[in-house]
Amino acid sequence: MKKFGVAAFGESGQYDLASNKLGSQNNELNEQLSIFQVKLVEFARQHNKELRDVPRFRAKFMRMCSAIGIDPLSIFDKNSHLFHIDDFYYQICVKIIEICRNTKDVNGGVISLEELHVNYFKNMNIEMEDIEKAIIMLGPLDGGFELFTIRQKKFLRSVPNELTDDQTKILEICSIMGYASITLLRANLNWKRVRSQSVLDGMVASGLIWVDSQSLEGEVLYWDPSWIINLS
Amino acid sequence: MGQQGSRIKVTESDKAMLQLKMAKDELHRYSRRTENLIGVERAELRTLCIKLKGKQLKQDNRARLLLKRIHYQERLLEQCSDQIINLETMVQSIEFKLIEKKFIDGLQKGNQLLKKLNVELNLEKVESIMDTAAEQIEIQREIDDALSNAVVGSTINDEVDRELEQLDREVNGTKETAPGVQDRLDQLPSTKELGELKASEPEKENGESQKETPKEEPLLA
Amino acid sequence: MTLETPQIYKFPPLYTPQTNKLIRKQQLQTWESIILQTCAQLSKWCINKNGKIYDQSTGELLISIFENPEIQRACSLEFQQEIWAYMLQNETALQLKESEDSNMIAIFWESLDSWSSTILEWCETSGKLNQVITIYEICESDENTNCKFYGMPSSFCLLVLHRLVDRNRATLLKDQGKIVGVKIV
Q1: Model-wide pTM > 0.80
Q2: C or N terminus of chain C, fewer CB within 10 Å?
């Protein structure tokens, strides 16, 4: 687009100052933050022994990390065994509990391990096995954390109510195409409409599945929110 | 910050500027419109070109008309751009003049202040003040002296010293040295035991200098 | 340019208002962030209530937010109203009262305060303090093409400038009854 007036005479760089200033401030801050992070990891490595032996020191360090917004998990490095290896898993546990709490309103307290891994832990080089180990450690908490499997896919339940058999079967059907419907349930499990409807309604009320009333077939479809990460 | 409640004043010059800038904006809008129009017409021309070719194109009235219109509009656009530059220049000159005015105002205010201060601080006044101050200092000194003389029993040590020395001179008939220096001369150690003075070189061997060290004396310092 | 949308945008039930209260709330939140994200990416400050956004120069439809032809789902009008009501309540959107188009809604993918600070900073760095500038100059001047607020519609800009007036940093100038200029100090 042609420019008119004085601006026609090439880039008037002086007026870029506003966006440049903000941009450079932003860059500076980012730089400082990353430098700080590097220093923090160095510090942790140097004082590894103290951090490992003196729990109060460790606690203070953790508190400092969280106060400035650095996730202690991100400076953990499995291979160099910073601090104590258990702490590493405790941190994962804490994170898992947090995630479950935050997503409870979307998935009713049932989250697939794949979702946990892909959305939250992959960037930190934490593998599935680590997540599973951490979940095992959550066992004694008696807070209702349980791993269960549906058609070779692992899920974590973080609500006290166990899934009934019927509900599990429905989730199994959902794991094929992402949804279940009365027709599908009749076709695969031979359930009568009344039974299907009541179980489905119960699951909707518990927030385990979402309702979709715009299917082209005209009947209501019930979707499993853990299907979302499969969407392109 | 004290700005709460203070309304920002809009001066007459501000209003004039506003009119200027609005005129500039209108021109800018017009240029944009014209530019878009030119773009559209050029596109039309191209489609015409695609339909007709060669001699047909040159003879086609519509094409010729279109092209002439485009050229005319481009000229208008240039004029517009020039006008915008003119207006911008005027805006900038006005802004600069306003700043100059502020500068002169500031200078004037400074001058007035300086004048006022000078009036208060005229030369005669200063001189009389300084004279009075000098007088007072004199008087103070006299008072000091008077006070120190008035106290019985405390005689000034210097006077006493001088008198005693005078007495000493009269009685003992010593040479005319400055009072007190003769005493000090007697305090210095005798020079009998000193060996010959050798010029001290900094690169001298330790051994040789060691011999001399016990005999060396503060005199060398 | 490819528009980025979160994965859940392709989740069919998102377009059906959920009966579970907690999930409903999450759903509305998701729609709010989709709208904010889309407007931020396209730099659109005001959009039509129907969620259709057009390219300013070519006029082509860039996206119809409430419809997703890929999965053949769309939000009902009622649901759209609900989403707008949610955003209006959260003050992430504002109904423009200008007479021209009562179907336009201002979207605050950045808060008004943040916008007013941006304009203030631009004024300070480009030396426009204590001068009269027109609204047209702020949003359409060729010198500002790199600024975040380039292309901002005047109705939106007015909201931002009013915020500056509230902060005692600006005063508005009228011409023939319409606000056309501002003096920022």
Answers
A1: no
A2: N
Contacts of A8 in chain B (CB under 8 A): 81
Interface test with C, best of A111, A211, A220 (most C CBs within 10 A): A211
Residues B12-120, CATH architecture: Orthogonal Bundle (1.10)
Which residues 90-119 of chain A have a CB within 8 Å of chain C?
104-106, 108
A100 in the same domain as A45: no
- Contacting A with CB below 8 Å, chain B residues are 24, 27-28, 31-32, 35, 80-81, 84-85, 87-88
SS3 for C112-126 is HHHHHHHHHHHHHHC
Is C161 within 8 Å of C138 (Cβ atoms)?
no
- For the beta sheet containing A110-112, the strands, ordered from the edge strand earlier in sequence to the opposite edge, are A110-112, A153-157, A146-150
Reported as a single tens digit per residue, the pLDDT across B151-208 is 655 556 677 788 889 998 988 875 555 555 555 656 666 565 555 555 444 444 444 4
At A58, which helix (H) or strand (E)? helix A55-67
| Residues making up chain B, counted from first to last | 221
Q: Which residue has the tokens 């979160």?
A: C6
Q: What is the pLDDT along chain A (232 residues), one digit of tens a residue?
A: 667 766 666 654 555 555 677 778 888 888 887 888 778 777 777 777 776 667 777 777 777 777 776 666 666 555 455 556 677 777 888 888 888 888 888 888 888 888 888 887 776 767 787 788 888 877 777 767 888 888 888 888 888 878 888 888 898 888 888 899 999 898 988 888 898 999 999 999 988 999 999 988 888 999 999 888 888 7
**Are A150 and A165 spatial neighbours (Cβ–Cβ below 8 Å)?**
no
Nearest C-alpha neighbor of B32 from the set B71, B77, B69: B77
Cβ-defined contact of B81 to A6 (cutoff 8 Å): no
Q: Is residue A197 part of a domain?
A: yes
The nearest alpha carbon in chain C to B92 belongs to: C131
Q: Is residue A10 part of a domain?
A: no
Query: Cβ contacts (< 8 Å) between A224 and chain C: which residues?
Result: none
A162 and A206 co-located in one domain: yes
Reference C47, options C60, C58, C63, C31; nearest CA is C63
Range of the domain at C73: 7-107
**How far is residue A129's CA from residue A132's CA, in Å, rounded to a whole number?**
5
